[in-house]
Amino acid sequence: MVVWDDGSYWWAQLDEEASVRRDQSSFHVFAEGQHSNVRGQIFNLKSGDQLPRPDYDWPPNVSIFIGLTGGAEVEVDGHVFELRRLSQLVVLPGHRWRLMARSDASVELVSLASLRPHV
């Protein structure tokens, strides 16, 4: 269930939303169809699926992974992290990552542009 209030906030129970939309391989949870430096996307993965790698030619982004259901692993610069329900991993700009589902899993990826300060 998603609740909107005149565009001032967004709320959802993410594990339930991912379950209801399990037939979709991915969907945006905010900023869909809008230009924004912040994106939120939920991926419904089957065991063995990998997330598409980001295009490293784009502006550097902070990537925040949140485990909703199931299990996945994220490799960052040679270190492997287990991502399961309610796990969170933050990857700073300039670091390559790879995510693979170890079981059927739902994972949210929030990415935001990390811009240099104006001086």
Describe the structure.
This protein has a five-stranded antiparallel β-sheet with strand order 3-4-10-5-8. The protein has one helix at residues 14-20, and strands at 2-4, 10-12, 26-30, 38-45, 61-69, 71-76, 79-84, 88-91, 97-101, 105-113. Helices cover 6% and strands 49% of the residues. It has a single domain (10-113), classed as Jelly Rolls, CATH 2.60.120.10. By secondary structure, it is mostly beta strands. The mean pLDDT is 81. It has one helix and ten strands; from the N terminus they run ββαββββββββ. The chain is globular.
Put the structure in a nutshell.
The chain is mainly beta.
Which short descriptors sum up this protein?
globular; about 120 residues; 1 helix
The first-to-last residue Cα distance is 43 Å
Characterize the biggest β-sheet.
5 strands, antiparallel
What structural class do helix, strand and pairing data support?
A: mainly beta
Secondary structure: helix percent: under 10%
Q: What is the CATH level 1 assignment?
A: Mainly Beta
**Low-pLDDT segments:** none
Task: Name the quaternary structure.
Answer: single chain
Give the arrangement of secondary structure elements.
Layout: E1 2-4, E2 10-12, H1 14-20, E3 26-30, E4 38-45, E5 61-69, E6 71-76, E7 79-84, E8 88-91, E9 97-101, E10 105-113
Antiparallel strand pairs: 1-2, 3-4, 4-10, 5-8, 5-10, 6-7, 6-9
